[in-house]
């Protein structure tokens, strides 16, 4: 039986269990591919601001379709179709608050002016059903002053949880700490601004946080792929990331095709993370918002223990939104600790029996709470996100390929959209020029800090070629840090240069 929003074998639509009560085994009935879920036939109910009761029940498809009033109130969030109202086929607007406004009113909300919405809808219609990861040129008005490889480093904000996992002797509490670390980044991931796609060869370095060194590099342009490595005295972190998307008109499904491994140094324990997919709603019409319904699985490859966490889908009037529930299991798949919370607030845990019920005499204890954030921040940045953009976290003699040095990113950070757009176009043209020169000379791009292995690993959303950290960055950083030269160039004067075949100018 499914304990997420889905269908069991008897085709009954199920709501989530009470808080802190999941049927052991996790989200067994969850269908990972959002397209598969959309193919199920759900009952749809439309509402408007004058009458919240169902007026018209009919069969329809859709991930956020709602149930008839006799079924669970925790079903998927209601759709607000604007077909007919705006004259656009296939356009749907989803209100996470559950539909207190009519569809047309909600569709007029968001960051776009009416003429801009119409223009982008006409431009994007032809891409419906396509992977738009890097095939569409988008205006800088929807961007945030950060790149995708910088966002990879955001996962390290609460890296102290991995330190605690390494120090912990209890194998199940070790997984509580490590899985909570994996959940903690979702507060930052709910931002609705798009990060810049990295230029091939672009890097991002970070120091002065949690005693770690972090390096990420864009290792492929088509398909877009990044690799990252972080290390301190307690853990090493290695990731190969290749996002896959599916554009659905007014929303996009994002599939995290990647491999994430964490090694805890004290005992050599290796952890493998598989995150849930993400859906970005109301891209053009309505207020943009993010949901990540599905399973997160963190497996201890050394012992066979694992964590299965269910990210609940947003339901009517926001019911279930942000909620995460699950269990830590031993190698025999027996539940040992229940976990519950909200990914935008906090997570807690409690020992449980074999039925998943809390053990008598134990209490629910908080393990993590989101840090205070700046008020009224334009890009909804955390304090840590601002640190990622600053040179306070940059190492001595920063690589010229670092994301902080991108002129388009820097211009957007300063609020100059015109300059940001021009610089973005210039970088993209130079990247095409370098590719043309490279191919003319029969050369192949080779990443500096990561090597392509022969390993191809399966993921729920496709196979992945794996890159591994080659250790050269550690040698480079050790040489720089031990250098007798006290002179260091002003980082603001360093020109962004990720190019392997010359810093090309567009002719």
Automatic annotation (TrEMBL):
Location of region: Disordered: 1-21
Keyword Transport: yes
Top-level taxonomic group: Eukaryota
GO biological process entries: lipid transport
Keyword terms, alphabetized: Lipid transport, Lipid-binding, Transport
GO molecular function terms noted in the UniProt entry: sterol binding
Keyword Transport tagged: yes
A GO-annotated cellular component: cytosol
Membership in a protein family: Belongs to the OSBP family.
Name assigned to this protein: Oxysterol-binding protein
């Amino acid at each position: 039986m499914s304990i997420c929003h889905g269908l069991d074998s008897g085709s009954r639509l199920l709501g989530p269990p009470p808080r802190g009560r999941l049927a052991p085994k996790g989200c067994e009935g969850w269908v990972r591919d959002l397209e598969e879920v959309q193919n199920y036939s759900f009952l749809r109910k439309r509402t408007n601001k004058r009458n919240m009761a169902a007026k018209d029940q009919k069969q329809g498809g859709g991930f956020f379709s709602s149930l008839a009033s006799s079924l669970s109130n925790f079903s998927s969030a209601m759709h607000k179709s604007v077909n007919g109202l705006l004259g656009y086929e296939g356009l749907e607007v989803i209100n996470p608050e559950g539909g207190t406004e009519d569809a047309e009113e909600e569709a007029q909300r968001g960051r776009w002016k009416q003429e801009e919405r119409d223009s982008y809808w006409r431009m994007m219609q032809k891409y419906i059903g396509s992977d738009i990861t890097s095939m569409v040129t988008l205006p800088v008005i929807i961007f945030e002053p950060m790149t995708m490889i910088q966002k990879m480093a955001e996962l390290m904000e609460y890296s102290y949880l991995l330190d605690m996992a390494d120090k912990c002797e209890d194998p199940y509490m070790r997984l509580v700490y490590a899985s909570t670390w994996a959940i903690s980044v979702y507060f930052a991931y709910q931002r609705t601004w798009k990060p810049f796609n990295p230029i091939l060869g672009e890097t991002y370095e970070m120091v002065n946080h949690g005693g770690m060194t972090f390096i990420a590099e864009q290792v492929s342009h088509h398909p877009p792929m990044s690799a990252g490595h972080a290390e301190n005295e307690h853990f090493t972190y290695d990731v190969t990331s290749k996002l896959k998307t599916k554009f659905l008109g007014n929303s996009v499904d994002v599939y995290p095709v990647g491999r994430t491994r964490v090694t805890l140094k004290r005992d050599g324990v290796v952890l493998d993370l598989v995150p849930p997919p993400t859906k970005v709603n109301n891209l053009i019409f309505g207020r943009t918002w993010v949901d990540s319904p599905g399973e997160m699985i963190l497996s201890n490859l050394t012992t066979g223990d694992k964590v299965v966490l269910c990210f609940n889908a947003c339901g009517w009037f926001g019911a279930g939104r942000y909620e995460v529930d699950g269990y830590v299991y031993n190698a025999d798949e027996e539940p040992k600790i229940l976990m519950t919370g909200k990914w935008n607030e906090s997570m807690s845990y409690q020992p449980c029996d074999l039925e998943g019920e809390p053990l008598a005499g134990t209490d629910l204890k908080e393990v993590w709470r989101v840090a205070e954030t700046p008020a009224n921040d334009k890009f909804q940045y955390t304090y840590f996100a601002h640190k990622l953009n600053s040179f306070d976290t940059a190492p001595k003699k920063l690589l010229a390929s670092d994301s902080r040095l991108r002129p388009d990113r820097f211009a957007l950070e300063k609020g100059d959209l015109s300059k940001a757009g021009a610089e973005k176009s210039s970088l993209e043209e130079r990247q095409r020029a370098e590719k043309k020169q490279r191919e003319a000379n029969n050369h192949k791009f080779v990443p500096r800090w990561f090597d392509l292995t022969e390993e191809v690993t399966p993921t729920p959303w496709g196979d992945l070629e794996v890159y591994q950290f080659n250790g050269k960055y550690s040698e480079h950083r050790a040489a720089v840090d031990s250098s007798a030269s006290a002179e260091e160039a002003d980082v603001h004067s360093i020109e962004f240069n990720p190019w392997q075949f010359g810093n090309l100018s567009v002719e």
